[in-house]
Amino acid sequence: QVQLVESGGGLVQPGGSLRLSCAASGFKTVEYILRWSRQVPGKAREWVATSDSDNTYADFVKGRFIIFRDDHNNMMYLYMNNLTPEDTAVYYCGTTYNHEDFWGQGTRVTVSS
User: Fold this and answer.
1) pLDDT block averages, 10 residues each, the chain of length 113
2) What distance in Å separates the CA atoms of residue 99 and residue 55, rounded to the nearest whole number?
3) How far is 97 from 4, CA to CA, in rounded Å?
């Protein structure tokens, strides 16, 4: 079964950095698109970044976040820099497998003083 498990969330000060991890199982990451999304409670989930043949980013994280995949270890990461309180959300990693989208359980990031 496709499984995606996020980790690395926590509390960080504005302007700080954090690395999120995503451990994938049930498929070989090298063969699939990988994504990060996030959701603020009470708000719609929004796309953050995609790793495919190239990396693409939502405008609100461009220049601050970096998506990185380690296909040898079936891992994917989101390096977040210059964080702001508006980045506070639950972050999810996902993929599309056999035309179906899969997402992990999420990891919570809180950016606050």
Assistant:
1) 97 98 98 97 96 96 97 98 98 97 98 96
2) 20
3) 12
Is the separation of the CB atoms in 92 and 5 below 8 Å?
Answer: no
Q: Do 20 and 7 form a contact (C-beta atoms < 8 A)? A: yes
> Can you tell me which residue has the tokens 């993929």?
95
CA neighbor of 28 nearest in space, from 66, 75, 67, 68: 75
End-to-end CA distance of the chain: 40
Do 36 and 107 touch, CB atoms closer than 8 A?
no
Rounded Cα distance between 30 and 69, Å, is 9
Structure tokens at 7: 């980790």
Query: For residue 28, how many C-alpha atoms fall within 13 Å in the half-sphere facing its CB?
Result: 3
